[in-house]
DNA sequence: ATGAAAGCGCTAACAA
DNA sequence: TTGTTAGCGCTTTCAT
C-alpha cells in the first residue's frame, strides 16, 4: 500500500489539506465534528505523518543529540537512561554520538548540528576539551546546549555537574584518616574542568592535614593506562590512590595483581565510579558514586525547558548534584 | 547570519540550484571547474545542507534506529559501540530507543518507524517478545530490519546471535564436571528465543550426564528478582547456578551475601555476562562472554549492506558468533 | 470553520 | 555541461 499522506485524507474526505493538518494537530479553529472525522480516517488508514516534511516546514525536529566520549561506562550509560526517560516522556527522539575521546570526531559531530538536524544538544566533552571550545561557543548561540559532567567552563551555557572538588576532598580525607600518607590522584586529563576540580579538592585535603606535595601527587593517564599505571604504582610508593575514572579504577586492580600488591594492605583505592559491582569486587571498592541518572535527567529537563521557552537563559541554570562516598573494604584500615 | 542555502550559492555564482546541488554531490555531469567553484564558496560561507529537505526529497534519512531493552548493561553498551563504529564510518546517524522491557513501549517505537524516520532498524527485543511479533513482521517488509541477540524467530529477516545453546551446554557441563549435581538455570523469560536455546543446551548437558530433571531446573525471573532469587536459592538446594543475564549474576552475589552462602563452596556460579570487572569480583566470576561488540558490528554491517543493495535478502544472512567460557573462581572445585 | 496558495530546502526528470 | 521545473509532505498565513 502507498504511504498515506495528508493529501489522501483530504481527498477522501473532500476537505483541504490545510483542514486536515489542523484537525490532526488539534487546532481549535476546527469543528469538533470534522476533527473527529479526520482523526478516525487517519487511524483507519494507519496514517503516520512524515517527520521530515514537518521538520522542514517547522524548522524543528523533535530530536536532540547526546554527545559522549564512551558508552561502555556505567556513568554515561546511566546518564543516558536519565536523558532518555525525559526525552521519551516529551516525545523527543535521541541521537547518540560517541567521540571516543577524539576532539576531531567531536568537532565533526558538532559541525553537523549546524544543519538543524537537532533542536538541542547534551554533551559531555572529550578530554581534549580545549580544542572544541570555539565550536561549542558558536553552537551554543544557535541551539540550546547543556553540558553534563564534563563541561567547558568558557562556554556560556548551563552545566550539570556533581560536586567534584568536594567529593575529591572527602575521598582524600578518608584516605588520610585510614592512614595513607602517600596518596596518588590518578587523573585523566589536565584539560577537563572536572579533573581540575577534583585536583583542587585533593590538594585542599592535603593542605588541611599538612601532607607534603612531594609525596602526594597527581598523575595523568590518557588512553592505554595499564603499563604506565603499573610503573607509577611501582615507582610511586603510594599507599593510597584515587582513581578518577571508572576505567582507572579497574586498571588499579589489574596493576595490583601484576605487581602482587595486596589491596587494601599495600595500597588503598577509591574509585570515582558507578559500577554496580563495586560491592562485590575483591576487595569491595570504596567509591565516589556520582548521580549519573539524575544528572542526565536534570540536563535533559533543562534542555527541554529551554526548548519550550526560548527566554530561559541557560547561562543561569547550572546545577550541582552531590556525589556520595561509599566506604568499602578497599580502604579498610589495617 | 541567515542560514546558507543552495539557492544563495546559486545566486552568488549565477548558476542554477540544480547545478549547485549536483556540484556539491560530486555528480560527474558537472565540470571540474564549476564543481570547485561551488565547493569553495560552500566552504567559505560555511554552507551546511539541510538534512530534512534532502530526506524529504530522497525518502531516505541516513539514519538508523537501535532499539534495546536497556543500556546500563555491558552487553548492550558494547553492542552499541560496535553499531556506532560502523554507522559513523558510513556517515549514518543513530537513534537510540530504550524499551525497558515494555512491549507496549516497543510497539509505540516500532509504529513510529512507519513514518520513514529511519532507513533501517537494529533491534534486540523485549522479554515479552510475542507481543511485538506482528508489528515486527510488518515492519520488516517496509524496512531493512536486523535482529541482534534477542531475536524473534517468526520474523523473516536476518538475525545475529551467539551460540546460545552450545554456550549453555558447555557452561552446564563445566558445572557438572566441577561437581555440581543440583544445577539451577536462572532464566529471564520463557518467550525469548535465546533463553529457550540456553535451556536446550542446559538440558542436553543434563541428559548427557544422566542427571535427573527433578533436581536440576529452570527458574524464571522477570523484573525485580532479588527476593525471589533469595527464596529460590534457599529452597532450591542448588549447588550450582547459571545466571543467564548480567543482572541475575550480580543478583546471585547479593543473594549469597544475604543467605550467607559461600561462593563457590556452597554454590557455584556462572554468569552470561560481559562485565569488565568479572575477574575482580569475589570470587572472580566464571562467565560466558558474549561477543557483544562483534555482534553489534555484524548486525550493522549487514544492515548497511541491505541498505546499499536492496537485493540482499536479509532472510538468508543470519549469523552466529560464538561465545566463550572464561573459567574463574566462582566455579572452582572445592 | 474551512480553503487556496505559498514555500521550507533539496533533488531529479527532462530540456536545452 | 547547465538550467527549468516540478515536486517530496507538511504547515501557515491570509482569504473566504
What key phrases describe this protein's structure?
6-stranded mixed beta sheet; DNA-binding; 12 helices; homodimer; 434 Repressor (Amino-terminal Domain); alpha/beta; elongated; Rossmann fold
CATH topology description of the largest domain in chain A:
Rossmann fold
Biggest interface and residues each? A-B, 46 and 46 residues
Distance between the termini of chain A: 74 Å
So, CATH architecture of the largest domain in chain A?
3-Layer(aba) Sandwich
Order of helices and strands of chain A: HHHHEHEHEHEEHEHEHEHEEHEE
- Helical content of chain A (DSSP H or I, runs of 4+): 40-55%
Query: Class of the largest domain in chain A in CATH?
Result: Alpha Beta
Overall shape of chain A? elongated
Supply the number of structural domains of chain A.
3
Structural class category of chain A: alpha/beta
Major sheet details of chain A: 6 strands, parallel
- Low confidence ranges of chain A: none
Q: Give the assembly state of these chains.
A: homodimer
Count of extended strands of chain A = 12
Give, in spatial order, the strands making up the sheet with the most strands of chain A: 2-1-3-4-5-11
Mean pLDDT of chain A: 93
Whole-number radius of gyration of chain A?
25 Å
Give a verbal description of the structure.
Two copies of one chain form a homodimer. Chain A has 334 residues and is an alpha/beta fold. The first copy, chain A, has three domains: 6-47, Orthogonal Bundle (434 Repressor (Amino-terminal Domain)); 63-161 and 292-323, Rossmann fold (3-Layer(aba) Sandwich); 164-289, 3-Layer(aba) Sandwich (Rossmann fold). In chain A, 44% of the residues lie in helices and 16% in strands. The first copy, chain A, contains twelve helices and twelve strands. In chain A, the strands form two sheets. A six-stranded parallel β-sheet of chain A has the order 2-1-3-4-5-11, sandwiched between helices. Chain A has a six-stranded mixed β-sheet with strand order 7-6-8-9-10-12. The interface between A and B is large, with 46 and 46 residues. The structure holds a DNA duplex (16 and 16 nucleotides).
